Amino acid sequence: MTSHELFGDGVSRSSGNQARRYNLLAARLIAELVKNSLGPRGMDKMFVDLLGEVTVTKDGATLLRKIDVEHPAAKVIIEASNAVDNEVGDGTTSVVVLAGALVQKAEALLDMGIAPSTISEGYSKGLEFALDALGDISQKYANTDREVMKRLAVTCLQSRALSYAGEHAADLVVDAVSSVADFGSGHAEIDDIKIEEKQGSISEMQLVSGIVLDKTIDSSAMPKHVNDAKILLIDEDLEGKRTKTDAEIRITHPSQLKAYSYAQTEMIRSKLQHIVDSGANVVLSRKGINTFSQNFLREAGIISVRRVKENDLIWLAKATGATITGRLDHDHEIDHHHGHHSGNHHHESDHDLNHTHYHHADIDIKLGYASRVYEKFVGDDRMVFVEGCKNPKSITLLLRANSKRTLDECHRSALDAVHVLRNFIASPEIVLGGGSVEAAIAKRVREKALSIEGREQIVLGMFADALEEIPLTIARNAGMDEIDTLTQLRSSHALSNGKVSTFGIDAIYRKVKDMSPDVVEPTVVKVQVIKTAVEVTNMLLRVDDVLMAKPVMHTHTHGDGIKHTHAGGDKTHAHDHFDRLGKQQRPMHHYY
Predict the structure, then answer these.
(1) Which of 59, 85, 90, 312 is catalytic?
(2) Quick one: 359 and 292 in the same domain?
C-alpha cells in the first residue's frame, strides 16, 4: 500500500533525508532574506502589503512578521525571531543569520555522512561551551552606570534609523529609561515611556518630563498656558447624559420640560462646582465636556481638555501623581487637613504641598502637579504639553521625522534601544559588539573541540565557523573583502596571548579593529540569540517527515472570462462565492 493510498488526496509527504534538506533550505532562504540588514552598513527592506501600505524597515523581526510564508520550517525561524524580539527586544536579525549559518554548516556535515543526531548533539555541546565563554568574557557593572548605558544606546542606534540624530537620540533614550527605572529592583517598565510622533525634522526630537497629548485645549477663549498647574483627572461626563439603551421621557406639561432641562444643568453645575472647589486649574477628562461646562470652567480660569485617551489618562496619573476621579456628584465639604478644624497644626510634608488633597463626604480627590501646561504647534498640529512634573513615573519621547514611514522606523529604533537599556538595568553585564564576541567564542569553541574524540569534533569546528558568520555578515554588508576580513579577524584573536581579544568589525570605517570601549551590547541579548539559534536548528535537524495537507488546486476560466485557481475548482460553482472569499479582511498585524 503506498502512502498516497494511505493518506488520500491532497496530502503531500516528503520524508527522510529529502524532508530534512527541504527544511534546512527553507530556513537558509529566510536567513538570506534578512542577512544584508545586519550591522551599521546594513540595508533596509521595503514591504508593500495587500492594501499598498508601505513599511520600510531594517528590523529583522518586523519584516518577517509581515511576510506570509507557506513552509513550516520557515515559520519556525520566524517564530524564533519573534521570540527574541519579545524577550530581549534586540538581536532579531542576528538570531536569523546565526540560525541560517548553523543550518548551512549542518547541510555540509550531512553531505560528509555525519548523522543528524550527532550534529544535533555537537551543536548542543557547542552551545554549552559558548555560554561558558560568554560568562568569562562578560564585564559586570553597576546598573546605574550612565556612561555604559550611553555606550549601549549609541551602539544600538548606530545601525538604526535614529543614527541620523546621533548622540542626541542616545542621550534622550538613556534619560527616558533612567527616569522610569527602579534601579534597586532592577526593573524598568517600558510602557511608562510614551512615544509620541509628529512629522518634522529629526533633530527636533525631544524628551518631555511629563506627557504630550495629541489634543487641543477645548475652547479658544481659555488661556493657552498655565504655570504651576494643579491637575484634576476625571473619568466623568460634563455634558448631558445619553443613555446606552433607547429611553424616552414623557412630559405632559411645558413646565416639566423646563424642570427637566434645569435639573440636568444643575447636575452638571454641581460637578463643575466640585472641580472649582478642589482648587484645580487644569482639568483633563476622558469623556465629553459641553459648551456650558467649558464656559463655566473658563470663567473660573480653568483649562480643560476633553476626550483624552484612557492610556494617556493613566500616563498622566503616573507623571503628575494625580488620581483619576470617577464620581463628582455628592454632598461635599472641604477640609484641607486629614483632621477636622481642631487647634493643632501639623507640618505638611513636601509631598503634601505638591499634591493638594480635596476631601469630600465620600471621595478623596488628589490633584497632580506640573510646572506648566501649555498648547503649542508641533509641525502642522497643536499639541498639549504637561511638563515639568516632579519625579515623574511616566514621560514622553517626542519623535520627529520627515514622513510617517520614517517615523514608524524611528519608533522601532527607539523601542530597541529602550529594550537594550532595560536589559542592562535588569542584568548589568556587557560584552563588546561588532562581531568581536562571536569571534572570541568561536576561538574558544575550537580549542575545546580538540579535546573531544569522535565526530563531534568536526561538528564543533563547524559550530565555530557558524558563529563567525555574524562578524563576516557585518563586514560583507560594509563592502569589505570576506576572505581578508576572516583571516585578519582570526589572526588578531589568535595573537591575543591568552587574553580575550576585543577585535571586531568596524563597519563605519571598514576595517578590523579593537572594539573597546565604545561598541558594547548587553550579555543577555547574546545569550538569548545563541540559545535560540541552536534550539531552532536542532529542532529542524530532528524532523525527518513532513506531511502537508493541501487541497488540490484547480485553475479554470469562468464564462465572464475571469481566470483563477482554488480548491474545488473542478466542481461546478457560482463565481460570486469566491469573490466574497477574496474580499476577506486582512488580519491585524502587530505593528512595531
Answers:
(1) 59
(2) yes
Residues 136 and 273 grouped into a single domain: no
Please report the beta strands in 388-443, taking only residues with DSSP state E, as ranges in sequence order.
395-401, 429-432
Q: Is residue 404 part of a domain?
A: no
3-state secondary structure of 557: strand
Per the domain annotation, does 370 fall within a domain? yes
Closest CA to 388 of 232, 214, 174, 227: 227
> Could you give the number of structural domains in the chain?
2
Active site annotation includes 59: yes
Whether the CB-CB separation of 61 and 94 falls below 8 Å is answered with no
Looking up residue 106, the CATH number of its domain turns out to be 1.10.560.10
Residues 378, 328: contact at Cβ < 8 Å?
no
Please determine, for residue 128, whether its predicted confidence score (pLDDT) is greater than 90: yes
93 assigned to active site = yes
**Is the CB of residue 569 less than 8 Å from the CB of residue 555?**
yes
- Quote the crossing angle between the two packed helices 146-158 and 166-180, to the nearest 10°: 130
Active-site annotation holds for 381? no
Place of cell 549542518: 106
pTM: 0.83
Are 382 and 529 within one domain? no
CATH number of the domain bearing residue 311: 3.50.7.10
What is the percentage of the chain residues whose pLDDT exceeds 70? 86
Q: Are residues 436 and 387 in the same domain?
A: no
**Given 93, 325, 406, 502, the catalytic residue:** 93
437 falls within a domain = yes
pLDDT of residue 475: 95
Domain extent, residue 355, equals 211-339+349-391
Instruction: Indicate whether 338 pLDDT > 90.
Output: no
Instruction: Please check whether residue 42 is in contact with residue 36, taking contact to mean a CB–CB distance below 8 angstroms.
Output: yes
The 10s digit of each residue's pLDDT in 395-444 is 999 999 999 999 999 999 999 999 999 999 999 999 998 999 999 999 99
Summarize the confidence of residues 181-188 as an average pLDDT: 90
The residue type found at 247 is A
